[in-house]
Every structure is written in C-alpha cells, then in structure tokens.
Amino acid sequence: MRVNLVLELLDVPGQLLDVLRPMGRLGANIVAVIHQRDVKTDEGKVPVQITIEGDEETLNRVIDVLEENGIQIMEVDGVLRREKITTILVGNIVDQDLKDTVNLLNQLPGVRVADLDLKMSDPPERSASKIVMEAREGLKQEVFKKVNEIGDLKGFLVINEI
Amino acid sequence: MRFNLVILMKIVILGFGAVGQGVTRVISLKREYLLDKYGLQLDIVAAVDRSGAALSENGLEPETLLETKAETGKLSQYPEYGVEGVSGLELLDEVEYDCLVEVTPTNIEDGEPALSHMQKAMEKGKDVVTSNKGPLALSFTKLAETAQKTGTNFKYEASVGGAMPIINLAHDTLAGSDVESVYGILNGTTNYILSRMAKEGSSYEQTLNEARELGIAETDPSQDVDGWDAACKIVILANSVLNRECALEDVKVEGISKITPEAMALAKKEGYLIKLIGEASQDVLEVSPRLVKEGSPFAVEGTLNVATLKTDLAEDVTVVGKGAGSIETASAILSDLLNIWNSG
Questions:
Q1: Closest partner residue to A121 among B260, B267, B290, by Cβ?
Q2: Which fold has domain A82-160?
Q3: B127 contacts B101 by C-beta, under 8 angstroms
Q4: Which of A83, A85, A87, A88 is the best substitution to test chain B (most B C-beta atoms within 10 A)?
C-alpha cells in the first residue's frame, strides 16, 4: 500500500535526510518526494510531500518514528494530523500577560499559537482574549490543563472548549 | 386491556410547591390511563406543606388538594382531613403508605429536612422518589446505603434535568454499556441568560435583571448563576451513573457572572457559544463556562437542558429536555413511581 505524507521541516541543512533515512532503514519504499524550498509556511517552515510504499505495519512504524523524532506531520493521506484548539480568557489582560501566555503555550511540545484576538473593555477587568492554537492530535486535554494553570496564576476566567 | 385486579400504591407527598402540585395534577390527569395500562391506582394518603397536612388513609382528592392550596395557600385547610402544624417527620410515623414522594424545597447547606424524611422512610421499609438535589448532592452514599440495607427503592430521576431522562436512561436503557463520562447543560436559568447574551450582545447584569423580571431567575439567583445548582446535579450523576463516590465539596465550580459581552463576541467570531457545562468522569468533577460549537446539540436556547453520556459500546448518547417546570418535573417522578411498581 501507499501513503502520502505532508510534513513541515525547518529550513536547515540535513532535515530532509533525517526524514528519508529512517524510511529506508525501516524498509519503506520511497515513491516520490516533492520539496520546494521557495515555498514557506507562515512559520517559515518548508512543506514537503512524500509518498512511500510498503506493508501497513512498516508504514505505521515509519510515521511513529518520524513523530518520535519530532518531525511535524501535517497530513496523512489528506487527513489532517493537527487540530485547532480555541480558548477564551476574561479579565484584566495586558500586553505582558498575552506575551507570557503565548510563550507558555508555545513551550508545550507539538503546540503552536496560531491566532490571537483581544477585545479591551472599560472597565479593563472585562477584557477578553481569544487564543487559537494548532496542536498535534491528542494534546487537547494537556493544552487545556496548561491554560487553566495560566488562568489560575493570573486570575483570569478561562473558557475552554467542551 | 382492562385489569381485573387493581393494585393500590399509597403515597405521601412531602412538600407542596411547584413540584408537589405538579405530581398531584399528573396523578389526577393520568388516573384512567394508569388504571387501563397498568392496573395501578395511585392514592395520595397524605400531603404536607408548611401549614400542616391533609391526610386520609382512603386517599385524598387530587383536585381538592390543588384547589385548597390555590385558594388558601394551606393544605391544613383541606375540608375535613386538614390538620394544622404537623411536621413531615411526625407524619411519616403515623400514616400507612408505600412510597414517599419527597419534594420539599432543596437545601444545599445540610440537606434538611429532606434528608431525615428520606432516611426515615427507607428505614421503615418504604420506597422513596425525590426531585430534591440538596440531600443527594451532600449525602448520596449514605442514602444509597440505606436503600440497599433496607431493600427499598430509592429513585431520583427528577433531581437532574427535570423531565430530561438521564439517570434511568443510563441505568436501564443503556444497561451493559459502561458510561465513561457525562457532561451537559444542567441549569435552565443560566442557559437562558447566556443564550440572551449571545443573541443580544447584552451585559450579564442587564440580562440577569431581565430574567428576574420574567420569573426565570429567582430573586436570589446565586445558586444558579454561581454554578451550585449544576454542581449538585453533576454530583448526583457522578455517584449514580459513574459509581464515583463524591459530594458537593469535591466539585470545582465556576459560575457565569464573569462572562462579558466581549468574551461572547470573540467566541461567536470563531463559531462558538459560551455555555455553563457540568462535567463528570473518573478524574474530572467540574462546573464551568465552556465553548460549544454553534449548530451542535449543545447550542440549545432558552431554559432547555442537554446532556451527553459517553459510553464504551453505544459511544455518545445525547438527550435534550425541559430542565424545570411543575408538570415536566412531575413526569419524571411519575416514571420513577411506575418503575417501582413494575419492579415490585
């Protein structure tokens, strides 16, 4: 069977090799690699499309090993491997809080803050901010836990997804 | 089919507010239906309010009970069978009955007097049906143990979500499936307020005042808006559906008073609504405002309740229904009475 992967790699030497080497070692057959260094994502990463062939077990093993090695797999056969997570904070939010919060969230492995929206109010205690994150699948609960911690620390009301 | 043998179930109603009156009305409305379908006659042998009681071992007239209450406000004024100043607890010693319907005003401080009423009834071998959240949220384990020890039926479908079937749904209809977690909108007042805020862009205070004027929110709405009412229900669900021993003090509770129009607007922009959600699983026990997708089953408006049971076999099962109301809540009490009758 064949599987199409879309990866996002850092634009530094050796990255592609780090992806291809375990594939060969595990016995998957590389059918195609589409790699255009000129195309970049918003984060400055290079999207790479790779088609590999092998039995199901081998292909699953390849995907596991890539993820273990910290390679960001965006899609497997057109199915997104990343999910969007939304949270809203209410309280007296100032610039510094937002910066801290974004930094703390970005420190979680596999999580990236993708969008921010802030509505200031008068009085300031009623201000609200919306944070949209992209995270590897299965990290939702961990992310919400972190957001709750931040909320407790800074005295914000946290409104997470259900 | 007409049953040749009519079986009598004698019930005592403690508490004659909206729910107690609803039960009485439903018994009156369904008299023929119950005889035809089940061969069952529900006799109210005593009803108690603050003024005293009406009692007759041959059964009181439901319509007369309702009229007496409507006209005088006092059951003790019931013609011939009215008694002043008798307490529920005393009455339970004196009357012959099969099942107690405990619907006194709920108390989330110490659960009384309902807790003592229910304990006493079960200790005397009587079945108990209740809509009373307070004692269940504070002393669920104790009550369940008493029921087990005395071999009596203890039913409380009406205590969570009013008419919305959830407890018996999990116990009976979904028997065999393991419920892993349950979450839902379990308070109608807050759902009304949040729905209006989402629609009108109005502030929390303004919307709460509107809800008060409409009689949807109580004069002291703190139990609802601070999340304690929903917390009681989540404790009942955790104990009864998840077999998790816990009490009100174990719930992490956050109400809706800090929700602002700004937060509502940001949620909307992303396709979400803000709802007060209660959630229970083996490691979560929480009431808090959460984001739900617009267009999802949780995007219910007005005073509706909704809940999802996450199960191993049936996956997600979601129910929606009226969370309050006199007749609606009484429907859940009637179903409990019929379940008891069917099991006996």
A1: B260
A2: Alpha-Beta Plaits (3.30.70)
A3: no
A4: A88
